[in-house]
Amino acid sequence: MQASLNTTDRRISLASQKSTSPEASVALPPSPISSEEPSSKPSPKPFIKPSSKSFSNIPAAIQLLKDRKQGILEEDWNIIQLGPGDYDELWRQLEREDVDLLRFIENKVHLDYNPRTFEFVVRMPTSIHEFIGESIAYDVCRQIDIIRGGNNPAAEIARKVHCLGSTSIYLEDGARRDPDKEFRYEGAKYPSLVIEIAYSQRRKNLSKLADQYIVESSGQIRIVIGIQLDYKESKIAIVSVWCPIYRADDRGRFLDSEEILSEEFRKADGTGVLDKKLRLQLKHFVPSEIEAELGGLAQEILIPYEKLAIFVDKAQDLESTENITYMPPAGIRKRRRQSTPPEEFISEDERVYRRRETIEARRVEEQDEEWIEE
Hints:
Elements: E1 13-15, E2 24-27, H1 58-70, E3 77-81, H2 84-97, H3 99-108, E4 111-114, E5 119-123, H4 127-148, H5 153-158, E6 161-165, E7 169-170, E8 176-177, E9 181-185, E10 193-199, H6 203-215, E11 223-229, E12 237-249, E13 252-266, E14 277-281, H7 288-294, E15 300-304, H8 305-319, H9 348-373
Parallel strand pairs: 2-14, 10-11
Antiparallel strand pairs: 1-2, 3-5, 4-5, 6-9, 7-8, 9-10, 11-12, 12-13, 14-15
Helix pairs in contact: 4-8
């Protein structure tokens, strides 16, 4: 299937597997959203008002976060309903009552919150998720490094593209998203490209995520790549790509998202798909304004489907503990340290406070000494 789109609409096209080329390619519009074009859909989903009979889910949210800290969540995506008032109160309550959990959340936890649907999502990335994300990011960075080594405008642009891992993105509708990986251009508000990894039963979640990334960033997030792993016995793995697209209705043109690629890169028997590649270009990693100003930026970043399949294989091997077993030497026992009285716990805030007190005391002493000498 090939999506052929009118260039006057600045729409996005993708050569599909029926194309003469066996490699998937992505083409983006060269210029940013103009002021004449709406930056959101004309008919957004209705905002769901909390029921007057609803009860607070804050205790359930806190327990969910505690379970995440202990690593005992069974699902990779855990969703509860949390109204906007409860969402704000959750953070205030954590600041008052559990600063350690709050810091863990800020540094370690992938969260999503949609104020329109009240969905509060706590993710539990596995070593499989982490390894695949790191492997893709490393391969992309390796190719961008090659472009950086040149002596041309594209090299200068490539030097300003960075992989930030997973950082919180706050979209225009107030939603928070924590992607698995993102690539951002220096000075840009949003990443140009994000990567999400999930099991196949979360396909609908990925589609919703991609739509929100694109629409609620006004198209500044230009590429969303989804890696979907089969949750059951099958070893099928799918790569999907979403991009911005302009549509029209009786109210005029509007920005939407479209899934322009969805293909297996790993078959049911676990073998990788041959002779196909995910083909990206340098322009996909920069804001549309930069592309419009410089033009070109067609340097390719290619990821063969077979290599993606290898990433998944290695990730699953890494998680498996059945092949290697450890047997401690016979007759060896463990020596555990005796318990000692707990030392006084000083939080980081207390340390900062005490440090400031010491500095202030020294400053006062110096002022007093100067006054006496005069």
